[in-house]
Amino acid sequence: MSIVNRARPEIRALKAYQAAEQVDDTIRLNANESPSTCSTGHFRRPLNRYPEVRPLALQAALAKRFGSKTEQVLVTRGSSEAIDLITRAFCSAGQDNIVLPSPTFSMYAHYAAVQGAEIIQVPSGEDQEFRINIDAMLAACTDATRVVFVCSPNNPTGATVPREDLLQLINERRNLSAVVIDEAYVEFGREPSVVDLVDSHPNLLVLRTLSKALGFAGARCGAVVGNPDVLALLSAIQAPYALSTPVIECVEDGLQAECLEAADRAIQALIDERDKLSQAIAALPFVVKVWPSDANFFLVRVLDARRIMEQCASHGVLLRHFGGELEDCIRISVGSRAENQRLLQVLNSSETT
Question: Which of 221, 169, 185 is nearest to 293 (CA)?
Fold first, then answer.
């Protein structure tokens, strides 16, 4: 059974936008484009022409990067757009719900709220080392659950959900809801992607992004990997020409072999810095705990989070404080070696300690 049957009926009936035909080496008088080429920038494709409705060459390059089939990839404006598309496709306002752990990435709940869907949060508190409890998440699902979100490694805790736990969740919700595994930080961890499960699990959707490991946060490019029938629904919702020509071309260039090799070296260097920085932070007198992380950040429990945040900000170093259940915690993104050394200097200053 396809998970498409759990999508909103009005979305299943939706017809995708029919863009003007694009054929190379033709006179294009069918799309209301300007005949004058913009002189700004130097691109392989002229900016006076619309890009492809869906960038197929980029789609194929991303599929190769992720280890999936080309038809299993929908390119999106970062993984955040994918979250929005999935929520809108499956959740009817006032009727359906999403299930997610807490704490986790705030945009899952944000887009559910925008859609008018109920939000069911399953706590994974400090007493549980912030481990996501899959049994508790399954127990929280109802007949109205349409999407289950899991970020692995999780933001802001950095913890990876074991593959067998993810398989349990996907299998037990197989014909009941979409299961979205957000792998924004997977390149920094020890566990491989679950993209290889897409073929055999029709309700699985995997989110990937180029913002973290490849350093393309400013390009706003990500993808959702899933079964083509589900991606067709999401594509029908997504705006036509969603990615601009400059973005398409810069990401295509960034996916060339030499760039990916450089990215892999940068990833390993960041992992080394993460381990060194987290050990140094753990030794500070006001640090209660540093949680292990499989991401490009780590979570720290301190004695006075707000004072430390203020002290760092006054020295031009910005950290992340969430409040609420994480009131005494700070998330630290791993920077360059120089940036990390500067952070340690500030934290070791007499004003802080």
Answer: 185
Report the C-alpha gap between 73 and 66 in whole angstroms.
9
pLDDT in tens, 237-274: 999 999 999 999 999 999 999 999 999 999 999 999 99
Give the CA distances from residue 218 to residues 84, 102, 153, 210, in Å, rounded to whole numbers and listed in that order: 19, 28, 22, 10
For the chain, the structural domain boundaries read: 3-255, 261-347
41-45, 53-57, 264-268, 284-288: the lowest-pLDDT one: 41-45
Q: Please tell me the predicted confidence (pLDDT) of residue 42.
A: 80
CATH of 3-255, one of 3.30.565.10, 3.20.20.70, 3.40.640.10, 3.40.47.10: 3.40.640.10
- ω before 153 within 30° of 0 (cis)? yes
Report the side by side order of strands in the sheet with 204-209: 73-76, 222-225, 204-209, 178-182, 145-151, 97-102, 118-123
**Domain 261-347 fold:** Aspartate Aminotransferase, domain 1 (3.90.1150)
List pLDDT tens digits, range 324-344: 889 999 999 999 999 999 999
